[in-house]
Structures are given as structure tokens and as C-alpha cells.
Write a structure and sequence with these properties.
The protein contains three helices and eight strands. The protein is α+β, with helices and mostly antiparallel strands. The strands form three sheets. It has a four-stranded mixed sheet, with helices on one face. It has a two-stranded antiparallel sheet with strand order 1-2. It has a two-stranded antiparallel ribbon with strand order 3-4. The longest helix has 13 residues. It is globular.
Length: about 150
Amino acid sequence: MEGQMTFEFDKRPTIKGYPELRWTGKRPYESTQYYPAQLRERYGEETNGWINKIFWGDNLQVMSHLLKEYRGEIDLIYIDPPYNTDYISNSIKLINDRNLLAEEGIIIAETDEEERVKDEIDKLKTSINIYDTRKYGRARLIFMRKE
């Protein structure tokens, strides 16, 4: 794939006392591949030159990519971080600082650490504030918008 980078890792022995998944034919974890921001899906009917798009990638790269065309025009941003609430607050700060969200746009962040995330977002002192939270199983959805 174009723009792909591979990172190599040293082989490490199993740490005693920690679980490890094992199966027949398992290869040692020696490298991982990194892909830059990618437009993965376009769907729906195009209206006034706009069509819904889903981007995959690191938040910094995706937001930098979006700035080119969509500053202040994004209606919905969904953040689903990998087990790290700092990722949510960092993303909110970037969204605010780069003025990505439309005036009526919303941000939905998924977390299982609602109170901690709320505290971190409150400390940011941005124009983006929490207006609702909902619980679905273990997951908490935090809804935010510009105030």
C-alpha cells in the first residue's frame, strides 16, 4: 500500500508470570505496519458537493488532513480511543484549536472512564463543552458541542 511504513521490533522473551496467547503456527511479533490517514468509505447521496466520509488513522493526521477542506464544517466527530482517556482530551483540544467543528456540530466520545474524561475536558477551558452522557453496557458516550 502506498505511503505505508514498517516498524521493526527486537525479539523479546516471554515474561514469567504474565499470560501469553499461544497457538500452532504463531510467529513472533517482529514488526507492525503504520498507515497514514486514509479515506476509507464514502456513502450516501452526494448533496451540494458533499458526501459522508469515514477516515481511519491517527487523530493528528486525520485532523490535519481535514483542515485542508473542512475547517468549521464538520457536523459529527466520533472518537473511540484505544483505552487511553488522554487521547480524548487531546483530540478535543486539537478540534477546538483547529476550528474543525461546525457551529451546530457535535462530538461523541466513547469511554469506560466517564468521570475522569469529564474532569479532563473541563480543565481544557475550550469552547467545547459536555452537554449529555449516555450509558450503553460498559461504554459511556459523552456528547459535546460548542457553547
